[in-house]
């Protein structure tokens, strides 16, 4: 049994070693691309579902092998009687650590972009709330949290995932509450919006899309190069 066979033992029945290796390659490319650009790239939903399912099955496989190797009543699969068991565990744990590193780094990079430009991405996936009328301002004290867009009604908050959209809304609501308690609540109601664009100047800052990026081109396509 070689390394590919060991890694394939944790895959689903409809997953080949080639497709698992391709998923790893795609995840690596997405991780590099996410770190190379300033804006948030579209969420790779199907790929992340496959990778998370593979991680779950791999953890279960490692736990089963570790439990069987430490069972004193099982004389056929202990590490003493089966010298390849430790090697198999080491290979599976190394592959799991590699996958977990890519997923964590990929998610942390996306979260860093979301928290840096939270209002920009909220307005991108959810319509802004309307300004209150004078009568509603008199009957209700508006707070900065009241103007935070809610992406819950958007079934496809691309380029965010549904979980990222929920996190972003909660994060921005807490941030608006902090700003309100600190200084914004002392302002007039019409000046408490965090997405104010009065006078033609928007308070919302998005990512800098004119930054230079490094692109890796892997194969020639016609007169130029294409592919990563």
From TrEMBL:
GO biological process: DNA-templated DNA replication; double-strand break repair via break-induced replication
Gene3D superfamilies in the record: 1.20.58.1030
Biased composition (Low complexity): 132-144
InterPro entries: GINS_A, GINS_bundle-like_dom_sf, GINS_Sld5, Sld5_GINS_A
Boundaries of every GINS subunit domain copy: 73-181
Record keywords: DNA replication, Nucleus
GO cellular component: GINS complex
Subcellular location: Nucleus
Transmembrane segments: none
A UniProt-annotated Pfam family: Sld5
Self-association and partners: Component of the GINS complex which is a heterotetramer of SLD5, PSF1, PSF2 and PSF3.
Family: Belongs to the GINS4/SLD5 family.
Name of this chain's protein: DNA replication complex GINS protein SLD5
Classification lineage: Eukaryota, Fungi, Dikarya, Ascomycota, Pezizomycotina
């Amino acid at each position: 049994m070689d390394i590919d066979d060991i890694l394939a033992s944790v895959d689903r029945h409809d997953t080949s070693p080639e497709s698992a290796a391709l998923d790893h390659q795609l995840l690596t490319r997405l991780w590099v691309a996410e770190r190379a650009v300033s804006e948030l790239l579209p969420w790779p939903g199907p790929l992340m579902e496959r990778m998370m399912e593979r991680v779950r099955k791999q953890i279960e496989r490692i736990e089963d092998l570790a439990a069987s190797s430490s069972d004193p009543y099982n004389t056929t699969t202990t590490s003493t009687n089966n010298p390849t068991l430790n090697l198999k565990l080491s290979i599976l744990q190394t592959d799991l650590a590699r996958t977990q590193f890519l997923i964590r780094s990929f998610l942390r990079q996306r979260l860093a972009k979301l928290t840096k430009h939270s209002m920009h991405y909220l307005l991108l996936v959810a319509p802004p709330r309307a300004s209150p009328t004078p009568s509603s301002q008199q009957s209700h004290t508006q707070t900065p949290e009241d103007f935070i867009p809610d992406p819950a009604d958007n079934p496809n908050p691309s380029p965010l995932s549904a979980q990222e959209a929920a996190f972003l809304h909660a994060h921005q609501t807490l941030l608006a509450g902090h700003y309100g308690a600190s200084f914004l609540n002392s302002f007039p109601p019409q000046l408490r919006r965090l997405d104010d664009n009065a006078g033609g100047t928007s308070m919302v800052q998005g990512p800098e899309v004119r930054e230079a990026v490094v692109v890796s081109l892997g194969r020639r396509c016609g007169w130029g190069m294409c592919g990563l």
